[in-house]
Amino acid sequence: MKWDALEEEPCSLARTIGVIGDRWSLLILRECFLRTRRFEGFQSALGITRHLLAERLKKLVRQGVLRRIPYQESPKRHEYILTQKGLDLYPVMMALVHWGDTHMVDERGRPLLHEHRKCGKMFDPVMVCSECGEPLLAKEVHTHPGPGARPASAKLPAGKPAKAKTPKHAT
């Protein structure tokens, strides 16, 4: 696998890493979910150089994760808004936050708590099966080649084709 060609790999994780797999892109997305929208806001929150920030924002716009919208004409300035593709990264970001809250906190505890506005309760994100609603555990998940897999990447023994149905959310 070539790092600069991850977006062409027949692996959803590799393709995703090709878009958001560097630390600055993830931290920019964190700021987007915390409602930062302007270049100066990102720079102030992250302490990133202008050049690097501009490069990462351009990539996220080019990939359709952010949308660049003018908010001032003279001088021309833009805001960066999450697209639906960007908003769909929320569960990924919350999974990373939860891992950090579980394994990387110090004696002071979690830096941020998350409240579900609908019920008013603080929560921990959980991942559940789209079919039965049960929590997903790594030991209880099996993979099968999908229609986009390369024949050589199949993990099943020869002569045993996968008979996996397409999940509801994929149709």
Keywords:
globular, alpha+beta, two-stranded antiparallel sheet, 171 residues, Arc Repressor Mutant, subunit A, 10% strand, 6 helices
Please tell me about this protein's structure.
The protein is of the alpha+beta class and 171 residues long. It has one domain (3-122): Winged helix-like DNA-binding domain superfamily/Winged helix DNA-binding domain (Arc Repressor Mutant, subunit A). The protein is 35% helix and 10% strand. It has 6 helices and 4 strands. The chain has helices at residues 12-20, 23-33, 39-46, 50-62, 84-87, 90-103, and strands at 66-72, 77-82, 115-116, 121-122. The protein has a two-stranded antiparallel ribbon with strand order 1-2. The protein has a two-stranded antiparallel ribbon with strand order 3-4. Strand 3 and strand 4 form a beta hairpin. The chain is globular, with a radius of gyration of 20 Å. The model is unreliable at 156-164 (pLDDT under 50).
Task: Briefly characterize the structure.
The protein is α+β, with helices and mostly antiparallel strands.
Order of helices and strands: HHHHEEHHEE
CATH class: Mainly Alpha
Instruction: Please give the order of strands in the largest beta sheet.
Output: 1-2
Number of strands: 4
The residue fraction in helices comes out at: 25-40%
Which structural class fits the helix and strand makeup?
A: alpha+beta
Q: What is the rounded Rg?
A: 20 Å
Q: Mind telling me which CATH architecture this is?
A: Orthogonal Bundle
